[in-house]
Amino acid sequence: MKLKILSEKIKITPAIKDYIEEKICKLDKYFDSPDNVEAKVMVRIKNNNQIIEVTVPTKLFTLRSEESHSDLYAAIDLVIDKLEGQFRKHKTRLNDRYKKGAKEKDFIFDFENEDAEENKSKIVKRKTIDSKPMDEEEAILQMELLGHDFFIFKNVDEDCFSVIYKRKDGEYGIINTL
Q: Are 38 and 4 in contact (CB under 8 A)?
């Protein structure tokens, strides 16, 4: 796998670069042709935490994971574990997608110890909501009152349906539909 390592507010030493390459190369086993895949790695510092973000775009899907830890090496281990978990979690869905019409096979899966529960549907509840028109501030209040991380509402300010969500940094984001 090709690597593109970027950094922000930190110098990437040869030891760090070698460790990242060693760990990212563990993902090669999931691809038929890892030489055609380029992983983008961003390492940065925020307060006392070392943050590593890995994005692996392929023809059929994009894997992305971000981890923060006081120790950079621990953050690297955590992010690789998350990426491998994403492969396992989406194994069936990706294989089905390939069978239904993907032109080129870009990944392989060979897991011997897969649980039967991973193949079950993850949807355990469906809801129908009655969305009343409201502004963004009222939507934030409703979301907080419900204790959810996101809230769907009819946005009166922008005349569309919107999703307001709480970001990892504690701020809010909004997604508007057309």
A: yes
Rounded to two decimals, what is the model's pTM? 0.55
75-115 pLDDT tens trace: 999 999 988 887 777 666 666 655 555 444 555 555 544 45
**pLDDT by residue (tens digit) across 1-13?**
888 999 888 898 9
- CATH at residue 71: 3.30.160.100
Total domain count for the chain?
2
Q: Are 29 and 76 in contact (CB under 8 A)?
A: no
CATH number for 149: 3.30.505.50
Order of all β-strands in the sheet with 49-57: 2-8, 38-46, 49-57, 62-69
CA distance linking residue 95 with residue 103, whole number of Å: 13
What letter represents residue 23's amino acid?
Answer: K
Contacts of 35 (CB under 8 A, 6+ apart): 1, 2
38 in Cβ contact with 3 (< 8 Å): yes
Check if the beta carbon of residue 26 is closer than 8 Å to that of residue 34.
Answer: no
The residue segments making up the domain with residue 52 are 2-118
